[in-house]
Amino acid sequence: MRDHFEVRDHDAAGRIGRLTVPRAGVTVETPALLPVVNPNVLTIEPRRIRETFGAELLITNSYIIRSTDRIRDRVLSDGLHEFLGFDGAIMTDSGSFQLAEYGDIDVTTAEILEFQRRIGSDIATPVDVPTPPDADRERAERDLETTRTALADAVAADTGDMLVNAPVQGSTYTDLREQAGRHAAGTDLDVFPVGAMVPLLNAYRYADVVEAVTAAKRGLDPDCPVHLFGAGHPMMLALAVAMGCDLFDSAAYALMARDGRYLTVSGTDHLAEMSHFPCSCPVCVEHTPADLRAAGDDEAERLLAKHNLHVTFEEIRRIKEAIRSGTLLELVERRARGHPAMLDGYRALLDHADQLEATDPVSKGTFFYTSHESARRPEVSRHHDRIARLTVPETLLLTESKPPSSHDYDAVWRVKPPFGPFPRALSETYPLTAETPERTDCAAQLAAAEGVSRLVEANPDTAVTLGHADWDPAALAVVPDRVAIEDITELGR
């Protein structure tokens, strides 16, 4: 049982939690963004990041500090918090990124953990092996074994009250990711980063990110705080939280600013091509794109980095409120409309609706049906799974319209796309209070037909009649043959 992480609220697999970082003496509310601070180049001072954006946690690279003489001696003397001027919690990376980039580093897990402890890191990282996407399976298995050895070395190290990461690797092999998650959760380590995600994120392979993370989550325990390494673009944070990730490190705010790129929740714009800023953060209110282009490279980079942090922290706050109000998947759906690759990611997430349903609250605010993906949400599958529990009479009419004033049926139930059939007494219960468009699409009708099919299969002795409102033939084909079908839009014509 990990007593340093407590989950307070859920929506889908997303959660609001409290991560206690004992060495820093702080408790961080998750989901949380960790701005990446390059110890050689402070685009924005960490103190300003804390004061302006409320950052409770940041991340820097202990390997770079250890390898840079002029920085190493000062950090060893003054401590990491004093060097960065940051009084929140600090996570440090180990050099695994450099290992992935250059093939070798001159430090072991025992050595780098000891160095991280000496400089005052609050959350340390062992030297795991980030296997790139699509590597051959033999390499992925070999690298994973090396990472397991690193985790064993981390467990054996004297780390005091410093939390330690247990990275979950496995490339794009979902069974290896699940195995790695289960192994990591079985250690005494504290935070669980899903690693080697940057190549997938940079290539907009969000569906593959979803598959890797959901596989890792199947192996991890519910009390494991999950860090999605390299995920800092505001466009994909809602999706990542809905998968069950709690921590995100963002170098994107600085790297993209250096490249003249302006982050939004629906993508990335180029400063050189902009006439107006759509954002209302202080940078965008006080400056125009022309102002930044005229400001000089360093000042433009600084201001763009500030905007990028504003929009990213704003999205984190928006996500937290969506979790509290039970509208996280509605937010994910809006973000999915911003980029085709995001839509791929959302569709991949809904492939795991059963996994999401395990933690999705059974009651929350109004369900909004806004696209055919809504028909695949966990609330719909939960309703279908529970249909068999309903007590059904010998003759039953299912209808989208009001019940007829006189009829020969034992009962008249509602049928509502995408959920399907239910007694009218349940009409005011979640999710059957859903707001749906009058012109339902085929996906909603197909889901409702599946609900009818579930009811009929569970009650083979009941005579069922379905009164539908001009359903698509593909949906009607799902309805069992023994159900009598009437198009209520044809009645009285």
Automatic annotation (TrEMBL):
Reaction(s) catalysed by this chain's protein: guanosine(15) in tRNA + 7-cyano-7-carbaguanine = 7-cyano-7-carbaguanosine(15) in tRNA + guanine
Domain of life: Archaea
Pathway: tRNA modification; archaeosine-tRNA biosynthesis
Binding site for Zn(2+): 279, 281, 284
Positions with a binding annotation for substrate: 128, 196
GO annotation terms (biological process): tRNA modification
EC primary class: transferase
Family matches, as Pfam families: TGT
E.C. number(s) listed in UniProt: 2.4.2.48
MF (Gene Ontology): pentosyltransferase activity; zinc ion binding
Domain tRNA-guanine(15) transglycosylase-like: 13-340
Matches recorded under NCBIfam families: arcsn_tRNA_tgt, tgt_general
UniProt family annotation: Belongs to the archaeosine tRNA-ribosyltransferase family.
Name the UniProt record assigns to this protein: tRNA-guanine(15) transglycosylase
Organism of provenance: Halorubrum tibetense
